[in-house]
Amino acid sequence: MFSPLGKSPLSVVKGQKHIKPSPYFSPSLRKSLNISLSRNSPFGRSFSNSVLEDANSHLIECYGSTLPVLVTEAITIADNDIKISCQDSGIHCKELTLPPSDLAHKAELVHLFQTEESRLPSALAVSPEGHVRYWPNINHEGSSVDAQPHLQGQECCSLSSIYPLGCILATTSSSLIIITPTIGDGQPNVICRTLTLPQGVLAGIGRKVSSFIFGVIPAQTTETKQLNRVLSAQTDDGDYFLYVLSNSCVQKWHIAKKDKKENYDQLLFEVDLDRELKQIYTEELFSNDTNAVPGLKTWCLDMQLYQSGVMILTACTIPVSPGGNVHYGFGFLDTSSIEQAQTFSSFNMTTHTKLICQFAYIYNSEKVLCIPIVSPQIDYNTLDFSSTGNAVLGSGSCEGMPLFFTRDYGIISFLPSQKAIGDSKLLASMKDVSIRKPDVISDPRWCESVPSGSVSSSLLISYQLEDKQNFHECLLVFLKTFHLFEKLTTVKMSDFRIPTKVLLCEHAEKLVAAKSIRLFLTEHGEIIETAVRETLERRDIEVKNHLTPQDVFFREVSAFHTVFPSLIELEKDHLNSDESLEKTLSAVMTMNKIFVGLLEAINEYRQNRLETYDLKDVPVNYMPWTSRDGHSGIRPFIRNQLDINVTYALNLTDNIQIQGVLFQQYVEILDFFLNSYEKQMQSLKKSERNVILAKEYALERQTFLRPLISVRQYERAGCYC
């Protein structure tokens, strides 16, 4: 199927089930942009030869079988302004009558698919005005049914598959409609449902309350957002994530199957990248000259699925500058976390001195630019189709292979040569390891070089921990970019082995815990300082020169767990010093507060990053540091804190307010403690160790629930029955 050229961008193949690395495409480079191109490679070879071009960096071949005669005839007799929409469901050739329209039809508004119930292909077409037509079987044109969603005069832009939930119809002003073809009692039907933001009684209470209940709600604005791209990615359980690029805003939606009980339309987040783009381009092009920012104009041109998020093609220019040159850049937005993505994980400017490595393909009807998405230094390729009268009509991908539909050759494949791939992996690894260089001021060991009183030691440690966390994220990006993460196996910890990805998550959790314990310095600074000092003494680490105990302790965050025995010993010393009942309760409640704060921070990070570390399914031999005994774990110290509560606090006061605080703290620590057993047992289902662990869990559960029952806290105890 084809249509005259419209203003909307060319569609790409939406056939991937998961977000995975693959070349991605953008038709957003237009002939009107003034760009210097390099190394033209005209296509003047015979179609009879499957290899059309064998350049230094790329191999271009004919792809698939010969096109049907009806398709080639349609392309031949059509005028120059035609476009193709490519999909990966195979070729089916049938001439159908599109729904009525006063505007020119678009290839992006036609979708061909095959259901599990039928071996024959079905089709869905939408006119620019929004008239929907559904053919359950394209061999029977008369069986079609029509529908008309309420678009209020909006023009339709694209149709994206979210099979088996239907298709997403997007308008040029960024409205989204789910179109679901159904067959009930043998009769075809089309259900249209608009994705809407939550409104009603909570609309005036405030964005925080609404966000807490419904998810993120974007700021209302009178400005109409121009749609750039809609992408969909299916999850393992059949749900879909939608990514919508409008102007400089990116939205992420969660579309769940209707058989689920929860709300199946949810906006997870919306982020406006305009301010960050201005800052990035100012840094890259104008050396942080703030005077350039007011005149800087930026765009988000296109977006494609890539790795654990989306890659966005951006551009900027200064309208008043001589020549009005347009500068391009690729920004990667990691969307794997349920938290809102605030900034680009990485950003690369495209210049004319780049090495062919991992590629993005930007094209218009005449040329295809092969642009690297990391930053080594050799000219990139430009493939010119116009020199022989050929033209690019559309693009797509199949299992990571970039495909282009050309007027003369039909579908061609376009892949990097082996030399280019080898060079790219070597040099790109160097780049990804050094994404961010640490500022020496953030390491306390350098503070002699800092003017006295200019930066506090506490601030230096905060910067140091932040840098450590940033470098950990860079390591994850590196491992996933080069497909090393899925190859990780296990690592030995004393006398047992754990999955390497669990250890990586453990490092990040300890960083989070280190940052969390510093939040207690203001209110409980003496306790933290004493615990840190005793921890270093126990580890036989000497504090030298100008450094403080905190400087030395937080230098090695992988040993953060060693502070827990010091906290317990400090608490026991206080409890054994014949203090008053009031001071005893205060000591227990203070240590409970610290434990709850640390365990909550650890658990929140772990739950939010399950997908990042591929821990949604509990791996075999799952023994995180919070569940381990011995010198590398903290389970015994969590148990000690529960014992202290039972022995010194729960039965010692009749004050209802103090009891309420104590019981709640106790339950929160107990919940983490028992949950660690449950996760561990899930990973040992078929092991003899699981039987022993189950008995141990039952005993611990009984031991620590009995005190709650004895003080008639049945509701709190009932959560574990």
From TrEMBL:
<protein>
    <submittedName>
        <fullName>Nuclear pore complex protein Nup133</fullName>
    </submittedName>
</protein>
<dbReference type="GO" id="GO:0016973">
    <property type="term" value="P:poly(A)+ mRNA export from nucleus"/>
</dbReference>
<keyword id="KW-0813">Transport</keyword>
<keyword id="KW-0539">Nucleus</keyword>
<dbReference type="GO" id="GO:0031080">
    <property type="term" value="C:nuclear pore outer ring"/>
</dbReference>
<dbReference type="GO" id="GO:0017056">
    <property type="term" value="F:structural constituent of nuclear pore"/>
</dbReference>
<dbReference type="GO" id="GO:0000972">
    <property type="term" value="P:transcription-dependent tethering of RNA polymerase II gene DNA at nuclear periphery"/>
</dbReference>
<comment type="similarity">
    <text>Belongs to the nucleoporin Nup133 family.</text>
</comment>
<dbReference type="GO" id="GO:0006606">
    <property type="term" value="P:protein import into nucleus"/>
</dbReference>
<dbReference type="InterPro" id="IPR037624">
    <property type="entry name" value="Nup133-like"/>
</dbReference>
<dbReference type="InterPro" id="IPR015943">
    <property type="entry name" value="WD40/YVTN_repeat-like_dom_sf"/>
</dbReference>
